[in-house]
Specification:
It contains no helices and 39 strands. By secondary structure, the chain is an all-beta fold. The N and C termini lie far apart (54 Å).
């Protein structure tokens, strides 16, 4: 068990490709980080946790001087495989919370982040559950219950709370949740993928008044002796571990020893790591946080995970990022921001829906926020929302779309708060019509030589319905980051603590699969997923941020398989979230000889 105040780090800008409520869909390749809470408090951020995989129940204790302004509780659970289901339950100060069902690969539950072969990260609001004094949070699961096949061991239980005090210190914070699955080849399904790196851009950071900046991360499924890395603005965080044998230049943030990555002994924490880093000297206006599962230190083109001196992790799951900035003085006034929004069913003569999220990055706002929809400068609707203690509110606004190209804006205003605004240009006409085609694959440099985490076309990672993109100031630039994540649904069963067993002696090759998606309709298409099926197995899923009316996107999608004859299917908007005039051309099927 560990309790400590966190030294903070300030973020005003975060990135989203498209708006989605705080829900999660299972994705083998991982669920991208997104903000769960942000704001500023006259006080500090406080955390406590118990770390290290054990049989349930597991508990942690946190002592607070006052009731929190905002609080969130977390636990990690090992499922054993994504095919198994079970349940988990929080108990706070002796009061059992509602039982939460874990659905594995079918999970759609808010606050449940499941990726890989059944690694769960589970989040619940705890603002109203904690009180001044000692608070105890316990977690139990269905492990051992008759009929339950889920492994059910608990990786960690922890709490993060923003608490006011009278020290004269103001803390601005942002909490980001996700469940990225960094892994090497052979740890997925029949057609393996590889994911070596995750980037989290952080823009617009203030630096002049920050006295202390701190970055904290939680990693699940870590393994001692297999190097992995956390970088902030290109600087490797942490020190070389005191124990173990490593190649020159290697670090091992996830070494099953929490709170030791920045120096010191730390505490034993089986298969998980919670680490904190002082990043005051690295803080800039534009920042980049990076997680890496390993590096090719010997230059042979591979990241080895076996032998006396491995170069990387077989797999590791970053799940939580805590960033905050501490300065002297009072918390700043409320400041509103509007995430980039999506417009659904925006066809001439139809009722469209504009969906977004409003955030407050300053002191908690006590009054409702007015959110207005403007089209070509004219107000066409508004609604009032109350921000949650996490500083956010989901917003949906109707619009009776007229034909033509329009400038659509969403504005958020409140007394005493800096207003926020997001806008985009879009065309409304006849319904969208997506047409998919696929070409023959091209072999890349060789087996195991190519990563599937990046792409030359601006298609951002699909993370179970949401991903990293543009937010706040970035929303006006029209840029999109080049981040792609593939999704594979594995059919392999696994033993506890092992994600999957690579097929012995199998040589997989990286291929590039050319895909084109045209929009022959008269309206701009909103964001939608694209699914790639290889020999009947779903191996890749990416998100297209939209296609303009009459336009197209082309993408070389990376897949791993063996040379020989394979069937390929590519499906745009498989679940039918985009209203179209014709869905029969959303799928392309082909059979190719992979060279």
């Amino acid at each position: 068990m560990k309790g400590s105040p966190l030294l903070p780090l300030f973020i005003i800008f975060f990135l989203f490709t498209f708006t989605a409520p705080c829900t999660a869909l299972y994705d083998f390749e991982g669920l991208a980080f997104r903000p769960a809470a942000m704001g500023e408090v006259d006080g500090r951020l406080v955390t406590a946790g118990t770390f290290g995989l054990v049989n349930p129940p597991m508990e942690c204790t946190i002592t607070l001087d006052r009731a929190p302004v905002w609080a969130r509780m977390y636990c990690g659970v090992w499922g054993g495989t994504e095919r198994y289901t079970g349940w988990v339950r929080f108990t706070v100060n002796g009061r059992p919370m509602e039982q939460i069902t874990l659905y594995g690969q079918d999970d759609r539950t808010e606050g449940i982040y499941c990726s890989g072969h059944g690694v769960y990260w589970i989040a619940r609001d705890a603002t109203s559950l904690l009180s001044p004094g000692q608070n105890t949070i316990s977690v139990s699961t269905s492990k051992g219950e008759s009929g339950s096949r889920i492994d059910g061991r608990v990786y960690a239980v922890m709490v993060v709370a923003a608490v006011e005090d009278t020290t004269g210190i103001a803390t601005r914070y942002i909490i980001m949740e996700g469940n990225e699955n960094l892994h090497g080849e052979g740890w997925s399904g029949t057609n393996p993928t590889r994911k070596d790196r995750v980037e989290v851009p952080i823009s617009g950071m203030p630096t002049g008044s920050v006295k202390k900046a701190d970055l904290s991360v939680f990693l699940a499924a870590t393994n001692r002796g297999q190097p992995d890395y956390v970088l902030f603005n290109g600087a490797d965080m942490g020190v070389v571990p005191a124990k173990g044998t490593y190649l020159p230049g290697a670090k091992d943030i996830g070494n099953e020893q929490s709170f030791d990555a920045a120096g010191g002994e730390g505490i034993e924490s089986r298969y998980v790591d919670m680490e904190s880093f002082d990043v005051t000297g690295h803080l800039r206006a534009e920042n980049l946080l990076v997680f890496e599962r390993g590096r090719d230190l010997d230059g042979d083109g591979n990241i080895t995970t076996t032998g006396a001196t491995p170069e990387g992790e077989d797999y590791v799951h970053p799940c939580l990022v805590i960033l905050a900035a501490e300065r002297e003085g009072q918390a700043s006034s409320p400041a509103l921001s509007v995430e980039p929004f999506e417009i659904n069913n925006a066809y001439a003569g139809e009722r469209a829906e504009v969906k977004t999220v409003v955030w407050n990055t300053g002191r908690a706002l006590k009054v409702p926020v007015t959110v207005s929809l403007l089209v070509d400068g004219t107000r066409v609707g508004s609604t009032e929302v109350t921000l949650s203690p996490a500083g956010r509110a989901d917003v949906s606004l109707p619009w009776d779309a007229a034909g033509g190209t329009h400038l659509v804006s969403v504005e958020a205003t409140a007394p005493g708060a800096t207003p926020g605004k997001a806008e985009k240009s879009m065309k409304a006409g006849t319904p969208v019509d997506l047409v998919v085609s696929v070409g023959p694959p091209e072999r890349q440099d060789g087996p195991g030589s190519s990563s599937v985490t990046t792409t030359p076309f601006p298609i951002a990672a699909l993370a179970g319905g949401s991903a990293i993109g543009l937010w706040l100031c970035s929303r006006r630039s029209g840029l999109l980051p080049l981040i792609v994540t593939v999704a594979a649904v594995s059919s392999l069963l696994v033993i506890p603590l092992v994600h999957a067993s690579p097929a012995a002696g199998t040589s997989f090759t990286a291929y590039s699969l050319p895909v084109e998606i045209r929009n022959t309709g008269g309206s701009d298409a909103p964001a939608f997923p694209v699914t790639v099926i290889l020999d009947g197995e779903k191996v890749t899923r990416i998100s297209v941020p939209g296609v303009p009316a009459g336009g197209f996107v082309r993408q070389d999608i990376a897949v791993y398989t063996t040379p020989g004859r394979h069937t390929v299917s590519v499906i745009a908007d498989e679940e039918g979230t985009v209203a179209e005039k014709n869905r029969t051309n959303n799928r392309a099927d082909a059979t190719y000889d992979f060279p």
